[in-house]
Amino acid sequence: MTAVVPAVPPEFTAPLRASREPRRRRLGRDVARSGTASRTEEFPLAENESVTSILDGLEEPAALRHLPESRLQAVADAVRAEMIDAVSVTGGHLGSGLGVVELTVALHHVFDTPDDRIIWDVGHQAYPHKILTGRRDRIRTLRQGGGLSGFTKRSESVYDPFGAAHSSTSISAGLGMAVARDLDVAEAKAAGREAPKRRNVVAVIGDGSMSAGMAYEAMNNAGALHSRLIVILNDNDMSIAPPVGAMSAYFARLASGGTYRSLRETAKQLGQLLPKALYQRAAAAEEYARSLVVGGGTMFEEMGFHYVGPAPAVAAPDAARAGAPCAAVQAQGESFTVCTVDLRRQRVRLFWLGADGLPYASLGSLAARQGAGLSFAMNAGMYDKGQAPVGLYVEDGREMKPVSTANGPGNFHLKPNGVFYVKGERAGVLDTARYLKAKVKPDFATQSGPMLVIDGQIHPKISADGPSQKIRNGVGTRDDGRTAVFAISERPVTFGAFARLFRDDLGCRNALFLDGSVSSLYAPNLGRSDLSRPLGPMVGAVAR
User: Fold this and answer.
1) How many C-beta atoms surround the C-beta of residue 176 within 10 A?
2) Looking at residue 308, what is its pLDDT?
3) Is 146 exposed, middle or buried (CB count within 10 Å of its CB: 0-12, 13-18, 19+)?
4) Which residue in 144, 148, 178 sits closest to 163, CA to CA?
């Protein structure tokens, strides 16, 4: 479970502070003050393209997900202009919608709605959501007889999974959906059927709504049930009335500095070298120390949530990037970081040698050379002392090391081992024999071992919970062939627990072990860049 705290720039709320002159006359100035006109140089409109014409053809979020990140701010600006114009005609909740424009664009760009559920607390801030989910042509019927509801409404759209028009109900609704999802998966597995897609459930709640007891009751239950649920706390001071009380002041004090996060990751890596009992005590001490440094910012984690934030006010591309691809996951009684990549929106590729012909050798070096386009990276297969891959390695269609079918000691040779490969917008994991038989011509491929999951079955030589415990990382793919899932454990885990993570919790029928002990992650949205011994091949995601 994750709680994210984004803030919204003051200029997005400018129309609320404008003078009470006629709405139609004020529209152009409101749009400019909210940021649209000032951004046209950075996100130029095409010839003959109006501010809102970019929305033509974006009737459903699926179309939005195919846009490059560079166009998302233009979409947000157009949504803001469309909403202001509509509300100038119909009346309604303007400020609450203005406070979530970038967030709304980012959510529909990152999550696979309507399969993934987005629940808007109260629902009065959902005007941008309605514009992007097939209701733009009716947006000027808001709050009119026979027109669109001023709130989310289940009978109105499949994109509205919950309707309330009352505050503080979103977390409990989301928890119910998350539990139902988990029961469906468990029932399918018990009956020997293919498990349904494990959809995400996201609850978006404002700082005003978070002051109600119902929200905390839901968080308390969520922490006890351990169902995967994402809660976004939109702390932007944009309640219907000014938020008051101790909780509002508490949110205002929350802080999370990048320097502290970097130091925390370094200390955590050093702590992983300690015996398990000492590591656990060190982790508990870190939580206590963080509460002193951050000023009490671990309340959410005390309730069972993994807290990420606060995220500063950001433009739409940055908001989308902050939501993907890496997040904390609690599963199998352990903590993991999981990075999920949709290959239709991001390109997964391998890295070994730089332009100078030398190995990148570290995540920091790779990140410095790739720049902001690298959304995550981790080590990608076993290597020898010179950082050369032990088995197959293909980069940009060129085979730089051949497939290894040799026998030998160590995890790599625990047969069947396997290959993770990428070809265009598709990715797969196959055991080595099947990979050779399929005669795949990949753009990128790396060989490692052992396989963790093979056609939904745990590797036959992996015991349920053996004695070996190490920090581990691996990769799996979903049946659609377009989703690659990378995971790293936060502390030493068994092979059995790691394999079950991919099969039972991440929905991967095929998964491959990449390495242990040296396992490392670069995840800028989490403020993380792990240190390690020199690395060989690495895998990462970059913008298409």
Assistant:
1) 16
2) 61
3) exposed
4) 148
Question: Residue 404 and residue 384: Cα distance in Å, rounded?
Answer: 14
Report residue 115 as tokens.
């399969």
Contact present, 470 and 428 (Cβ < 8 Å)? no
Query: Facing residues of 266 across strands?
Result: none
Beta strands in 219-333 (DSSP E): 230-234, 306-311, 326-331
Q: Do the Cβ atoms of 419 and 445 come closer than 8 Å?
A: yes
Question: How do residues 419-473 score in pLDDT, each as one tens digit?
Answer: 999 999 999 999 999 999 999 999 999 999 999 999 999 999 998 888 889 999 9
Residue type, position 385, single letter: K
Using DSSP's 3-state secondary structure scheme, residue 119 falls into: strand
Average pLDDT score over the chain = 79
Which strand (E) or helix (H) includes residue 434?
Answer: helix 432-438
Per-state percent for the chain, helix, strand, coil, to nearest 5: 40, 20, 40
- CA nearest to 201, candidates 221, 224, 216, 222: 222
CB distance 156 to 148 below 8 Å: yes
| pLDDT value for 90 | 87
| Beta sheet of 457-458, edge-to-edge order | 326-331, 334-342, 483-489, 472-477, 510-516, 451-454, 457-458
Strands 510-516 and 393-395, sheet pairing: unpaired
- As a whole number of angstroms, the distance between CA 218 and CA 326 comes to 25
| Distance, CA of 201 to CA of 222 (rounded, Å) | 12
> Do 382 and 412 touch, CB atoms closer than 8 A?
yes
At residue 89 the predicted structure's pLDDT band, cuts being 50, 70 and 90, is: confident
Closest CA to 495 of 525, 473, 521, 527: 473
* Spatial separation of the C-alpha atoms in residues 268 and 530, rounded to whole Å: 9
Q: Tell me, what's the pLDDT at 357?
A: 92
* C-alpha span between 163 and 156 (Å, rounded): 10
pLDDT of res. 18: 31
pLDDT tens sequence across 192-243: 887 787 788 999 998 778 778 888 888 888 878 878 888 988 876 555 555 5
Calculate ∠ Cα 273-375-422, nearest 5°: 95
Q: Euclidean distance between the first and final Cα of the chain, in Å?
A: 29
Q: Which residues contact 373 (CB under 8 A, 6 or more apart)?
A: 542, 543
Pull the structure tokens for residue 1. 């479970």
Structure-model confidence comparison of residues 484 and 286, the more confident one = 484
pTM of the model: 0.55
Q: What is the mean pLDDT of residues 91-100?
A: 82
Rounded to whole angstroms, the Cα distance separating 450 from 464 reads: 15
Q: Are 143 and 91 in contact (CB under 8 A)?
A: yes
List residues bridging with 393 in a β-sheet: 401, 446
Extract the tokens encoding 140: 């000027």
| Structural domains for the chain | 2-253 (3.40.50.970), 258-294 (no CATH), 324-543 (no CATH)
Say which residue, 449 or 247, is predicted with more confidence.
Answer: 449
